[in-house]
Amino acid sequence: MPDAVTRTGPTARPELLASLDPLLRAWLPRQRWFAGRTAPALTLLAATDLLPATARQPGLIHALLRVEPTQDTYQLLLGVRESLPPYLAPALIGHVTQGPLAGRTVYEALLDPRLTDLLLERLRHPGRLDGLRFAHDGETPIPPGLTPCPLDAEQSNSSIIYGDTFILKVFRRVTPGLNPDLELQRALADEGCERALAPVAWFESTDGDPLSLGLLQPYLTGATDGWDLALGELSKGQDFRHEAHELGRATAEIHLALAHALPTVTLGRAHTVQLAQSMKDRLDKAVQAVPALHPYAPALHTAFDALAADTTPRTAQRVHGDLHLGQCLRSPAGAWSVIDFEGEPSRPLPERRLPHPPARDVAGMLRSFDYAARTNRPWAPDWARRCRDAYCAGYAQAAGDDPRTDPVLLRAYETDKAVYEAVYEAHHRPDWLSIPLSAIERLATEASGMPRPRPGDAAPQHPMSTPSQEATP
Ligand SMILES: Nc1ncnc2c1ncn2[C@@H]1O[C@H](COP(=O)(O)OP(=O)(O)O)[C@@H](O)[C@H]1O
Ligand SMILES: O=P(O)(O)O[C@H]1O[C@H](CO)[C@@H](O[C@H]2O[C@H](CO)[C@@H](O)[C@H](O)[C@H]2O)[C@H](O)[C@H]1O
Predict the structure, then answer these.
(1) Its family (predicted)?
(2) How many domains does the chain have?
C-alpha cells in the first residue's frame, strides 16, 4: 500500500501497545474520526512521551497507530492518570492492567485542559522532541495561558479552541506527505489572500516519511458557517442570493491566488480522458458500496463519456478539493473565509494534491446549495437554483470566467461529487443518503437526454502518454 506510514525506530514500544491493545480496539470504533467499524489488529508505529506521568501530574503520550486490515495510521494523544476526575469521565479509554502503565487510567488527552495547554506550550516553543517537530510562522505571537476548549462539532479530525484566539486541528487519519490543509493555506497566506486563515504554528513527524500532524490558526470568534446560515435563511423563507454571490467571489479569489502561487497545467485530451476514467472508476466502486446507485450507473457513465469526448484544453490547478457550505465561515462583519483545505478525507493524499480544473470546487458548492434545499421542509428547489446561479455569477465576476460556460465539465464534477456523497452518507449518515440519491436521479435523467458521443469522438481507454504524474487528476 503506497500510502502506508512506516516507522521502525526505538519509539515504537511493543510492551506499551500490548498493555493498551484491548482498550484501544474497543475505543477506536466509537470515535467519529475513525474510518472503520472495527479495529481488529493494531501496531504502534511511534510513541513519544510529551510529559511523563507522575503521582502529581498527568502524563501525555503522543502515538501513531496503524490499524489493520486497512493499514490506516491514526494519531492519538493519550492522557495517563492514576484515576480520572469526574469532569474527565467522558474521556475514558480504560484502566490498564498490565505492562508499563499497569494500574493507570488512559484517556483522550484532548479533553484535558492541562494537557491541551501543554500542547500549546510546545507550539509556542518551536523545536524537536524524538521524531516530532514543532514549528511556528516566526511572526504571530502566541500568548501563554490561553484557555483551551475542545470543539464540540461533527468533524473528521479533532480541534481545540484556545481562548477564542486560535484553533488547533489535530489530524486523526494521517498519511505521508505534506497535508494540503497546511500547504495550501500557507501558499494563500504568502499570496496575501484574505479568504483563508494563515497557519500560525504546526507540528509534524519527521521520523521516517514526513507526516503533518497538527495545525494552529486564528479562530474567527462569532463566525457562522455557511451551512448553518443557509439553513437558517431557508427556514425563514429568506433569499440567500447575496451570500451565494459573495461565496462565488470568495471561491474565485482563492482560485486566482492558488493558480498564482502553485503550478498549473493544461489538461490535454489524454488527461481529460484519464480524468473521466477516474470518475467512472469511482462510480463503479461506489456502486459496489452503495447498491442504490446501481440503476443510475449507465446514465451517469454518459456524463463521464461526454467529458472524455470533449477535447477542449482546460487549465488545472490546486483547488480546495472538498468545498461545501460548512467549510465557509462568515465573520460578524460579513466577510467570508474558507477553511479545511485537506480535500476529501477518504481519498489518498497524493490524489488530493493533484491539480484539477476549478470547476471541481464550484461543483462542490453547487451540490451544497442542493443539500441545504433538500434538508428543508418543504424541499426548496427554486431556492437552490437561485443560489447556484448567484454563486456562479459571483465567481464569474471575480474570476472573469463563468463556470457555466463549460457545462460538460461542471456536470461531470457534480456527478462525481454526488457519487462521493452517496458513499459518504451511506457510511456516516445513512438517514441522509436520499439527499445525494435525489441529485443522482436528476443528474442521471439529464445525462440520459444528452447527445451520445459520436463514434469518432470515442475516448481511448488508455491514454498514450501522460506528460507528468503530477498533472494527472
Ligand atoms: N478558524 C476557525 N474559526 C472559527 N471556527 C472554525 C475555524 N476553523 C474551524 N472552525 C469550526 O470547526 C469546524 C471543524 O473544522 P474543520 O477544519 O472543517 O475540521 P475537520 O477537517 O475535522 O472536519 C468547522 O466546521 C467550523 O465550525
Ligand atoms: O467537512 P468534512 O471535511 O468532514 O467533509 C465531509 O463531511 C461533510 C459533512 O459534514 C460532507 O458534506 C456533505 O454534507 C454537507 C452538509 O452536512 C453538504 O453541505 C455538502 O455539500 C455535502 O457534500 C463532505 O462531503 C465530506 O467530505
Answers:
(1) Belongs to the aminoglycoside phosphotransferase family.
(2) 2
Cα–Cα distance measured from residue 178 to residue 182, given in angstroms and rounded to the nearest whole number: 7
Question: 218, 239, 269 — which closes off a domain?
Answer: 218
326 Cβ below 6 A of ligand 2: yes
Residue 163 belongs to a domain: yes
Asked whether the beta carbons of 356 and 215 are under 8 A apart, the reply is no
pLDDT at residue 128 greater than cutoff 70: yes
Question: Does 455 fall in a domain?
Answer: yes
186 and 283, same domain (yes or no): no
For the Cβ of 310 lying below 6 angstroms from any atom of ligand 2, the answer is no
C-alpha distance from residue 140 to each of 135, 215, 261, 411, 450 (Å): 12, 14, 22, 42, 54
ipTM of the shown complex: 0.98
Contacts of 146 (CB under 8 A, 6+ apart): 120, 162, 163, 165, 166
Distance CA 418, CA 299 (A): 14
List the single range of 37-51, 118-132, 350-364 with lowest mean pLDDT. 37-51
Residues 27 and 157 in one domain: yes
Give, rounded to a whole angstrom, the gap between the first and last alpha carbons of the chain.
20
| pLDDT tier for residue 256 given thresholds of 50, 70 and 90 | very high
C-alpha cell at 326: 460548512
Ligand 2 center–CA 324 separation, angstroms: 6
Final residue in a domain of this structure, among 196, 218, 240: 218
Question: Does ligand 2 come within 6 angstroms of the Cβ of 406?
Answer: no
Do 61 and 128 sit in the same domain of this protein? Answer: yes
Cell of 358: 476549478
310 & 459 share domain: yes
Co-location of 175 and 305 in the same domain: no
Taking residues 190-196, what's their average pLDDT? 97
Atom of ligand 2 nearest to the CA of 432: 14
Residues 213 and 232 in one domain: no
Atom of ligand 1 nearest to the CA of 197: 1
Predicted confidence at residue 450, as pLDDT, reads 67
Protein residue with least CA distance to atom 9, ligand 1: 339
Is residue 352 predicted with pLDDT exceeding 70? yes
Q: Are residues 176 and 323 in the same domain?
A: no
Q: Are residues 39 and 178 in the same domain?
A: yes
Phi then psi for 141, rounded to 5 degrees?
Answer: -70, 135
Beta bridge partners of 44: 65
Look up the domain containing 59 and give its range: 14-218
